[in-house]
Predict the structure.
Amino acid sequence: MMCKWLIFSILVLLLPVKASAQYVLLDESYTAQQLAETIFGTNCAPQISNAVITGNNSHGYFTLNFPTTPDYPFTSGVLLTTGTAATAVGPPDIDVSSEGDATWPGDTDFQNAFGVSPSYNATVLEFDFVPVTDEITLDYSFASDEYSFDASWRACDYKDGIAILIKPLGSADPYQNIALLPDDSTVGNGTISYEYTCENGIQYWYYLQGDGLYHYPLAYSDDTSVFTAAANVVAGTAYHMKIVIADGGDTGYDSAVLIGEQTQDFSIDLGDDRLLAVYTPLCAGETLTLTSVPGGTSYEWYQDGALLPAEITDMYTATAPGEYTSIVHLATGCVRTGSILIEYDQPIPQTPLTYYQCDDDADGLAPFYIAQVGQEVLGPVSLQPIYYYASLADANNGISMTIWAQPVPFYNTIPNQVIY
């Protein structure tokens, strides 16, 4: 029997399919409290309460998911938009997003900060907080479809933007907007652009890269550089913060803000180290008062790792060389630490040195290479630079000082002159 094989030739047509990976992984389930805690972190972070967010599916927690790793300052944080959060997810495209309508209200405080009216499509995250440091900072960038080429004519009239507003809790005073450019302008498409005839701020436009590639994570036409909003606060005092992104003037062409997830430095600043190597040691017999942070429930001070059991306040006076460490326990359970290294110079000799110089004309005046004399007086003491004074009063007050360096000579003005 002859077996016959029927051979089928199967042609497989392979068609290329364009895949577009998301540049941002978005979690829209985050509560207002979780978003606020994302902004400030959880390690010794401010106490946050009464967090509220308003918007229209326009907020969430993001994680960047670039196909390559760009030089982007933060990789996770909070996304707030004037459209829907899901539509904001990159990569960038040429489509313009205008998702909100006039039934989605704006925000009066945003309007006051920007000097525009009306506003629409506001997404607002606000909360009370009690800081544990004397400064707060937030890193953020602004993105918008107002930057699309068919919308460039709109920038002077329709100003979307971001306001980060703060004031003491319960205060009737106006908010302070800490989302500002170095010239105190607000942050938005009306102040940061690449070709508009109103305000420009092109140096803050992030897409100035030169390689022709998109380097920002959202699906909007462009975004700005990353800015840092900062405010001086009083540790232990309650404040209210309100973060607003809104469309200015109309509802078209959405915008967004990315706020970086924070890992703040809560170490205690006891001052710069006082070191011989950088000419900042303490002089013999000098003391230095160290001040820790206020508001702690308990305090510990250490010298070279050894507990100083009698020191239980927020201040300590150092009288000897060593590494001093302050440990503070706060009511929130946070423990903050800080250290400073203190070195002492050797005592300055108190015995005057008489220096003689030949005086050819016997008038009592001659050139002296005083830098050499000064070093002989000090001996092994390493103080630098060495200052010279014409009177004891000037030396005590630190005024009218002069530095003489060899080979420049000093000419005394009276016979037997004393230099300090």
Remarks:
- The chain is about 10% helix and 30% strand.
- Residues 1-19, 207-212 have pLDDT under 50 and may be disordered.
- The chain has three domains: 24-260, 276-342, 348-420.
